[in-house]
Amino acid sequence: MAMESVPESQTLHISKLRKRWQVLVLQLISTVSLLFLMKRMNTIFGSCTDQFIADSGGPESTYWCPAYEHTRGLRYWTDSDSIDLFLPDFVHGLVDLSGNTLSGDATFVAPVLLCAVITAIWVYILHQSEKIQMWVNRLISLGFVGWMVLPFLLSWIYAMVVSGPHLPFGHENPVYNHIDHLWDPFMFIFEMIFLGIVFAPILAGLMGIWDSPRG
Fold first, then answer.
1. Which of 11, 28, 44, 209 has most Cβ atoms within 10 angstroms of its Cβ?
2. How much is the pTM?
3. Which of 68, 71, 74 is nearest to 45 (CA)?
4. Rounded Cα gap, residues 2 and 196, in angstroms
5. Where are the domains of the chain?
């Protein structure tokens, strides 16, 4: 006798189970709880003590703040070393879209949205076939290598055609220091690592909540 089909409301098939409203509600509750945990962390560890600020020269000085909020570290890094960030300031949560300086919980909005976008893309790719995943990995790897090498080579070759042979570094004129093009990808990675100090737990939490297995 053929087995009776199991109603969708009672099935344990993962591909159908993860679409049940009960599971979605639990995922939403877990996401909200994760965000409240981050807010609590910022409330407790998000600012330096008054004594630390006074010992560092007051609120107008540039100093490294050993706190949960990431913007103080980014401002210290860019102000002290005169380094321009690769990602826009609003992505880091330093300013809003109008250019106004942010502080407190507002500094977390853009990075958390970035974590949500990365999670959505990750989950979508993870539920594709292995062939598609392989091609995505190859494209990302080739894209990064191309991003690092092509601007450097093209600018150097073009400059040698126009101005004659020269080394791509060690010139007073920064136009001829083509090797600087190699630092953009590494600057991007460094900024992502810097944000990851604060937001890696959020990203890992979101992936763990929404990355239900295939079945």
1. 209
2. 0.72
3. 68
4. 53
5. 20-210
